[in-house]
Amino acid sequence: MSGSVNITVDGKQVAVPAGLNLIEAARYAGKSVPHYCYHPRLSVAGNCRICLVEIQGQGKLQIACNTRVTEGMSYFTDNDRVRKAREGVMELLLINHPLDCPICDQAGECKLQEYAVEHGSGITRYAFEKVRKPKNVSWGDKVVFDSERCILCTRCVRFLDEVAGTPEVGLDLRGEKCTLVVKGDGKLTSPYQMNIIDLCPVGALTSRDFRFKSRVWFMHFTDTVCTSCARGCNTVVGSRGDRVLRMVPRTNPDVNDSWMCDFGRLHYAFVNDETRLTLPRVAGKGAPYATALQRAKAILEGARGQGILAVASPFMTNEELFAMKELLDRLGVEDRFFLKPTGEGDDLLVHPEKCPNARGAALLGFAEAPAEWPSKEYGALLYFAPHEGADLPEEVLLRAKRRIVFSLKEREADVCFPLTTWIEKDGTVVSAGDRLQRLTKGISFEPTLVTERTVLDRLHASLDAAHRPPDTAAQAVARLAAAVPAFAGVTWQRIGPLGMKLEAAGAPA
Ligand code: SF4
Ligand code: SF4
Ligand code: FES
Questions:
Q1: In order of start, what are the domains of the chain with their CATH numbers?
Q2: Pocket test for ligand 3, best of 21, 22, 43, 48 (most atoms within 8 A of CB)
Q3: What is the rounded CA–CA span in Å between residue 491 and residue 509?
């Protein structure tokens, strides 16, 4: 290994990259060193002392987070001395801790709980009154602080200072009275403030949105991607009973490090909206998919001589867009557009394109909606209505004799198919920097819902008996890769959970 050093961890010899700290280096030997204040993407604070290790030849135990490997170093992460020291650190951390796990949102994913079990003594020798500190302190409309649970690791302070660029939390008072305060009016302002909830290793910072909604052990977790802007931050969606309860970031150094913006994190209410369309509508009445497909087929066939306007959505996956392209090729449709919602971006993550796949739509031959729409009359409109951003102008809608619309909510149309959201399907999107990323299905909002790709493929098959649609997302990706040069060589497996650069796509538009 070039640029590596040879070390020994708990008697096991390993070569590790030079410059690593002893927590990261220990992983190469299959060892994990407990840590609270250390976070790989923040500066080192070295204040919690739970990461103590014994380095051969050094009298005192050292903190692993602030010590770098050197050639020939040998250290112990799990001998009697280290275990005894950790037990002492745990005892100190728990002296004034309220031990209110039964009413704490962090229970089940709390490092204090986990390390108390792994490294604590299981008993307390402290016979005095615990220090009481403020609980349920509002830090604004997103974050709630509990000072009694805080172990003063300063992860939250460092994140806001070093990553978000809004140094608005600091330490106040000393000793056992030490606590955190938000500067100014006591309310956080950062648009990235909710990352401190994920960073907090204990239950001192909780999300006002998620508090008391569910115990984490009752939830189902899905690795996917945020679709609220083109950045495509990698996320873990937590759901229960087929409803989304929260989103947290998933580490991807090539996209979002370990962070996401608050807007994306909280932007999921539309998924759980109980007034969503769950069955097609034909002429304003509920209808089974078979009836809606028959009617849609008749409309498209009837409109062939009069022209068809196709408007896709940049919220569609590449595979849905490709299924739409195949259908439009079959029908000889030339006017193919998509509507792109835009807004403000920033220097950290937020992208000005407020949709996940405008680039994919462009690569698949759809043009961005023109400032001036063609003034033609059409026999039919096939329209995927974006669930947010600008809608198709009324006069363009009215220019089509018949309308087939895909929408989250019922709309006036000859046929209205329900849309599914990003967490209800497997598929791919092209995020900023031409990064191809996977969406993964986590919930079925209603068992009646059929995804857009399936509806498009069924419609296509009803017009052309030779059309053989793919069954799975992996097959749909393979079909896309075989047909569209920008996606050449791509497979579902190659994209993987962290995505891949779409080299064949050429320069981003
Ligand atoms: S609130 Fe959490 S992250 Fe912040 S210092 Fe306290 S324990 Fe650490
Ligand atoms: S920056 Fe964009 S992709 Fe990332 S969490 Fe925010 S809205 Fe979602
Ligand atoms: S993790 Fe090393 S001192 Fe906190």
A1: 4-78 (3.10.20.740), 281-505 (3.40.50.740)
A2: 48
A3: 23
